[in-house]
Amino acid sequence: DDDMFSSVFCENSEKLINVHLFALAAKHYSLSNLGVCTPLEDVLEAMKGNSQEATGIKPDEFMNNKKSHEVQVMSELVDNIANYCGVKQVIDIGSGKGYLSSFLSMQYNLKVYGIDSSNSNTSGAHERNRKLKKHWRAYQSRGRTNLKTHSSEKANDRPVESEIKCKTINEEFVNNTNSLQSQDQVIMQDLVPSCGFTEMTTSETRTETEADLVAQKQSHESKLSEEVLAILNILPADAVEVFSSSHCNGKELCEEEKVQRKITSLKTKARKSSESNLYFPLTSCITAETELSDIVTDLEDCMMVGLHTCGDLAANTLRIFTAKPEIKAVCSVGCCYHLLSEQFENQEECCDKVWGFPMCQYLKDKGWCCGRNARMSACLALERVAVGQMLPTESLFYRAVLQVIIEEIYGVTKSDRHVGKTFSKSSSFIDYVRRSLKKLELDDSKLPDSCIMDYYEKYKHRMNELEAFNMLKVVLAPCIEVLILLDRLCYLKEQENIAWSGLVKLFDPVKSPRCYAVIALKKQTC
């Protein structure tokens, strides 16, 4: 309880005196122990409706293990939410290279606009989507081949089946010739693009009825022609390709053959449509004031998603969602908490600026501030450390000693520039320091190698201290993440137009440490 946790720190010095209690307190206030999350299974169960499991592309063949896990789990949830809200358009904010966007479009046949601020990401997404579509067609082809093999194995006693397969178009329509309405339903099923192998789900039924269909075919041909022609007449003029008479070898086609060719043309167009690009990568910088209709010209009722949206982008995604009536739902997984802007961090009054933290009125009224060090700690991955994926102690040590050097030698305590991932490119500590100084635009010529190594030797014995300190930060990380995520959830709870909002753990935290999604649905308007 709170009294027990009060003995974690010394009252006078405020120093940590009980590491064990510190760890217990951190665990007590972590998101997994607070009981505020909604289980993913419950969300899927509540929204499943008439959605069917897709059986098409396997993301692990085109992405690394982490990204595949994220995309597969989140895309299923997004599809369920979209179906529940009755929308087909998805806006992917911070879409990056388009992993989630392209999968949503190809696997679930959603129309996705991926918006990213980086031109290179958008170009990469275009190219990656082009290559992925080739694999997608290969999947479809492979699925059809497997289907034919499966059907032929089950029909060794039906030599007529190979002949029947050549007449699939007629058979599909003959099967429902009782009324014009049933014909319409069959044609629309052929026209609607499908990214799953829908043929697979009906292959057994179709095989078992093929013999009966052949027997019925002659008696229904005349009626079929009339009904199909009636339906084709109400379609747009450009929905059917005009057949060129030059391909008829001078012979006049009978009415049935004309219908057959028109239907074949329709099926070809439908196939091309299903393979068409339903994912549109766009380049734009998103802020809280962004007008989506200026970016997406055919904006309609839709939902917004974001897979690991960095810093303020996650907060702005929620603000846009609450402000725009067209957006019926949101599913946002944030990351890069260290990049969040904080209203009360520097005690600067700036009434016009929209801050990343805090969002909810409760924390604003309290003037709550985390600070950059705390936000950096929130990015650490406790679950990974718990299974043996230790922190990069050496790189952290390099960075700490570098900080001492630039303060004592160059007198620099703060810089807008960043060292970045210099450690992985460096062959030694000396190389690391020189590369880093160049990135910080500091003159390294005044710093001999011997001086650099002196600093290294001076602090080398304190590496264990640094490791212990960083382990304490890791233990505290979930508590800081809780504060940021609950702030976002409370912001949504404060809005009057939200029907439901919640935090949902989507991913395995070992594979993907930023595993919590903020999800919300708008109230339905009459």
UniProtKB/TrEMBL annotation:
Boundaries of every Methyltransferase domain copy: 66-343
Record InterPro entries: Methyltranfer_dom, METTL25, SAM-dependent_MTases_sf
Q: Where is the signal peptide?
A: none
Q: What is this protein called?
A: MET25 protein
